[in-house]
From TrEMBL:
Biased composition (Basic and acidic residues): 445-486, 577-589
Entry's Gene Ontology molecular function annotations: ATP binding; ATP hydrolysis activity; RNA helicase activity; RNA strand annealing activity
Name of this protein: ATP-dependent RNA helicase DeaD
Domain DEAD-box RNA helicase Q: residue ranges: 7-35
Domain annotation Helicase ATP-binding: ranges: 38-209
Species of the source: Cocleimonas flava
Length: 597
């Protein structure tokens, strides 16, 4: 089913209170994966969804499963397994948003790095939905603090990622702990043989849905991305518009509410902008498009649905202010420019933790999207000065100025002012609301992923090399990662400054590989994978270098984390708190008096 169909969320038989939340958020129509998945999940069927990150799959399983909740019971009825704590938090927040009108609803994310006591208290109170990483879910199952006896649905989100990170054994263990009557939903971008085996073993007559994404983008479109927090987006957008030569612009947002909100903010900053959404009648929509064609307005802020099929020759830029629902939507959006051989520019605004979404779009389109370099204050000043000069020249050529010339002559004679002084004064008065000389105010991030990102963004484990522009360092890191993944027997390198060495009670004899150690520590301790270094795997133990200053409670927690069924029993070998140093401290000191005799 294409997401170009006329289907609406109101056609999908969702719970009225869940539907109310969706409509209040301003979403107009389901994406392809949502339209195809929701009806089957409402019927209670098992389902396999093969879809890339960024296709809207969180809503695809959340909306129907929330619609079937029994709020009279405090039992955990839905369990979502996610490979990283970032995704677990994201899914939990989305489900809380969709369920905000469900009275008494509770959702709880559980993951490593968070206090176990907090989680224990919340689980005792009861949570209808638990979203967790496999390691922490296993921990609570062993403690018997997470009870799944009345579980109705289990979701495996990004199953191939859980396989890559070494969690698949934990996933199978958790599956065995759940009732046979549960509904099982599995989403995966790819379908390796291990994932296929799990679907055959644990899913019953599953519906198989694959979302085909359009992968052709026009070669005449130059594509950029800018990454930053929401609070910086408007300033980044207007800074770009200030210095860039543009024709017509379409800015895409996700909701109807946002079309109006952003359009008003742009108008307040001096841009001729109009919203376009599903609440606008067809006759008014046509008037807006005609105004854009004629150049009476320059910017339309629109949702996907109303902009489909829009073909205006003067559109030079498409700006994805909000991430598209899926890769196909991205292709449709940017296709509004670069038509009939004309050149166009597409810009994608992504959140700081959006690397994987960006990579999904790049894979789907077969093109690399480069970071956008925002114009500097000097660039903006030059653009304003050039526009001012053009305005003066055009006005001088097109208007009769005899009357004004007489006033200037009188000013010059009466006040002993030079023509330059008068002209400068008039320029100041004209531009005082928009000074020609721009001074830097708040610093806007450069928008390149991998620099200044949130510490919690670990979605780019395989792209550590992109963190540094130095080509040689990037190559060195790539080689180091490759050696780790192949279990190289190279000699262990020296421990770098700021790092300490730990011993782990898992090794080659347990089938341990570097990826298992990286996955466990990254998820359970919240350590970015770039800071998990010098992994050396021996027969029955391993060593690894981690940043110094790790909180004691995290160290204690990692001792009990299991890899390949073995507890890590992590303990420090180097540094001021190491076991070696402690043993030296514990030795009795010689009596100084005796030694002096």
């Amino acid at each position: 089913m294409s997401n170009e169909s006329n289907i609406k969320f109101s056609d999908l038989d969702l719970n009225e209170l869940v539907l109310k939340s969706v409509e209040e958020a301003g979403y107009e129509a389901p994406s392809a994966i949502q339209a195809e998945t929701i009806p089957h999940l409402l019927e209670g069927k098992d389902l396999i969804g093969q879809a890339q990150t960024g296709t809207g799959k969180t809503a695809a399983f959340s909306l129907p499963l929330l619609s079937r909740l029994d709020l009279s019971s405090k039992d955990t009825q839905i369990l979502v397994l996610a490979p990283t704590r970032e995704l677990a938090i994201q899914v939990a927040e989305a489900m809380q948003s969709y369920a905000r009108h469900l009275k008494g609803f509770h959702v709880m994310p559980i993951y490593g790095g968070q206090s176990i006591d907090i989680q224990l208290r919340q689980l005792r109170r009861g949570a209808h939905v638990v979203v967790g990483t496999p390691g922490r879910v296993m921990d609570h199952l062993r403690r018997k603090t997470l009870k799944l006896g009345n579980l109705k649905a289990l979701v495996l989100d990004e199953a191939d990622e859980m396989l890559r990170m070494g969690f698949i054994d934990d996933v199978e263990t958790i599956l065995k702990e759940t009732p046979d009557t549960r509904q099982t939903v599995l989403f995966s971008a790819t379908m390796p043989s291990v994932i296929k085996r799990i679907t055959q073993k644990y899913l019953t007559d599953p519906v198989d849905i694959k979302v085909k994404t359009e992968t052709s983008t026009v070669s005449t479109i130059t594509q950029y991305y800018w990454s930053g927090k929401t609070s910086f987006k408007l300033d980044a957008l207007t800074r770009y518009l200030e210095a860039e030569e543009t024709g017509g612009i379409i800015i895409f947002v996700r909701t109807k509410n946002m079309t109006t909100e952003l359009s008003e903010k742009l108008s307040a900053r001096g841009y001729a902008s109009v919203p376009l959404n599903g609440d606008i009648q067809q006759s008014m929509r046509e008037k807006v498009i005609n105004r854009l064609k004629k150049g009476n307005i320059d910017i339309i802020v629109a949702t996907d649905v109303v902009a489909r099929g829009l073909d205006v020759e003067r559109i030079t830029h498409v700006i994805n202010y909000d991430m598209p629902a899926d890769n196909e939507s991205y292709v449709h959006r940017i296709g509004r420019t670069g038509r009939a051989g004309r050149k166009g520019t597409a810009i994608l605004f992504i959140p700081p933790n959006g690397r994987r979404q960006l990579q999904g779009i790049e894979r789907a389109t077969g093109q690399t999207i480069e970071p956008l370099v925002l114009p500097s204050p000097q660039d903006i000043s030059e653009a304003r000065i050039n526009r001012f000069k053009e305005m003066v020249n055009e006005t001088a050529e097109s208007q009769k100025l005899d009357f004004y010339e007489k006033i200037i002559a009188d000013l010059e004679e009466e006040n002993k002012l030079t023509l330059s002084q008068i002209a400068a004064t008039l320029a100041f008065l004209v531009q005082q609301d928009r000074p020609l000389l721009v001074t830097p105010q708040s610093r806007i991030p450069d928008g390149k992923l991998g620099e200044g990102r949130d510490r919690n963004d670990r979605g780019d484990r395989n792209d550590r090399g992109d963190r540094n522009n130095n080509r040689r360092e990037r190559g060195d890191r790539t080689r180091e990662n490759r050696e780790r993944s192949q279990g190289s027997k190279r000699k262990r390198g020296p421990t770098q400054a700021g790092m300490v060495t730990y011993r782990l009670d898992v090794g080659k004899s347990h089938g341990t590989e570097p990826r298992h150690i990286v996955g466990a520590i990254a998820n359970e301790a919240g350590v970015e994978s770039q800071y998990i270094q010098n992994i050396d795997i021996s027969g029955d133990y391993s060593t690894v270098d981690l940043p110094e200053g790790m909180p004691k409670e995290i160290e204690k927690h990692l001792q009990g984390v299991r890899v390949m069924g073995q507890k890590l029993q992590l303990r420090q070998l180097t540094g001021k708190d190491s076991s070696e140093t402690k043993s030296a401290k514990d030795k009795p000191k010689k009596d100084s008096k005796k030694s002096s005799k």
